[in-house]
């Protein structure tokens, strides 16, 4: 089913203000933020059922408001930023652990070499 037919057939049911936007779709599953890849709406964001266009799955969909107006998008951006910061912390800890491990093995190798000679 094409998005243009979806927007006309289900637009009235799914285009609500962000405060009143449904948290689940018609089949009761959660919505996910997707990006349109159609010629009519390239790059436009929309909310769709997690089962959107999968087999006989639910075809719930509703256009997302502009990023400045949709609080859910801001929440997702904040979460992504927080996850990026957490990833950077973990990467630094991993690099430190790797350096300590390499240093430890190098020292152990040198001590073993010294005792053998």
Automatic annotation (TrEMBL):
Residues 25-67 form the GRF-type domain. GO terms for molecular function: zinc ion binding. The chain crosses the membrane at residues 94-113. Residues 1-23 are annotated as: Disordered. PROSITE patterns: ZF_GRF. Keywords: Membrane, Metal-binding, Transmembrane, Transmembrane helix, Zinc, Zinc-finger. Residues 1-15 have a biased composition (Low complexity). Pfam families: Zn_ribbon_GRF. This is GRF-type domain-containing protein. It comes from Arachis hypogaea (Peanut). The lineage of its organism: Eukaryota, Viridiplantae, Streptophyta, Embryophyta, Tracheophyta.
